[in-house]
Design brief:
This protein is of the alpha/beta class and 257 residues long. It has a single domain, classed as 2-enoyl-CoA Hydratase, Chain A, domain 1 (Alpha-Beta Complex), CATH 3.90.226. Helices cover 48% and strands 17% of the residues. It is built from eleven helices and ten strands. A six-stranded mixed beta sheet has the order 1-2-3-5-7-10, sandwiched between helices. A four-stranded mixed beta sheet has the order 4-6-8-9. Strand 1 (3-8) and strand 2 (11-16) form a beta hairpin. The protein is globular. The chain starts with a strand and ends in a 9-residue tail after the last helix.
């Protein structure tokens, strides 16, 4: 399994476990995560979840670029749909989900964290949506959830430049709730989950659902537009150039084609 599950009384800890690949989100990992969510949703003993990454370097460095490199637009759309399915599942999961961001949360990894209810960051954490650097754009909800978590201007800056955000900047902009020393992060996340787990489950579930409504607007319409844009990026020469340059460890030369 590429996602580990640990149960601690009323909380569950899900760990993305591909540290040799910076916990890059393969299709298999998305399937494993979805499978665990299926079992935990119907487990009355579990009241809250913590999601984190294995190793010292990454929460998850994002979607598996190797999987996307030769994708057709239709294949890219299907991959993005898979990412949407998991991030939507986290956002609408009836139990609170806390992201313990212990390192890189980039691309799809940042989008996964954005879908969680609360984001706690290690002082070593870095957030970003760098898809533009490989010729595409965020495709797992990042265009919508980053703007909603921070502001449209800040979201555009990150998406247009592809730059990374430190843990302190993430906290200052609303991207992270709190920042903790690296060695304290999991203890803090578990303590918060345990506190939430002491509250009435129905009230928490209802509160989560209603708070989410405050941000809904035309989310599904916007996500559909994001899917189209993500898929269309795979018709461009810049997408092929960006991903080729990534593997060849060189600076890409984007030509606007």
């Amino acid at each position: 399994m590429s996602v580990d599950l640990e149960r601690r009384e009323r909380i569950a800890i899900l760990t993305l476990n591909r540290p040799d690949a910076l916990n890059a989100l393969s299709v298999e990992m998305l399937d494993d995560l979805d499978g665990h969510l299926n079992s935990l949703e119907n487990d009355p003993e579990i009241r809250a979840l913590v999601l984190t990454g294995a190793g010292e370097r990454a929460f998850t460095a994002g979607a598996d670029i190797n999987h996307m490199r030769e994708a057709t637009p239709l294949e890219a759309r299907q991959y993005a749909r898979r990412g949407h399915a998991v991030t939507n599942r986290l956002e609408n999961f009836p139990k609170p989900v806390i992201a313990a961001v212990n390192g890189y949360a980039l691309g799809g990894g940042c989008e996964l964290a954005l879908a969680c209810d609360i984001r706690l960051a290690s002082e070593k954490a870095q957030f970003g949506l760098p898809e533009v650097n490989i010729g595409i754009l965020p495709g797992w909800g990042g265009t919508q959830r980053m703007a909603r978590a921070t502001s449209p201007g800040f979201a555009k800056e990150l998406i247009f430049t592809g730059r990374r955000v430190t843990a302190d900047e993430a906290r200052a902009t609303g991207l992270a709730n709190h920042v903790y020393p690296h060695d304290e992060l999991m203890d803090r996340a578990v303590a918060l989950a345990e506190e939430i787990a002491t509250k009435p489950p129905w009230a928490i579930a209802a509160a989560k659902e209603v708070v989410n409504l405050a941000l809904e607007g035309d989310l599904q319409g916007h996500l559909a537009r994001e899917l189209d844009a993500f898929a269309l990026a795979f018709t461009t020469e810049d997408q092929r150039e960006g991903m080729a340059a990534f593997f060849e460890k060189r600076t890409p030369e984007f030509r606007g084609r």
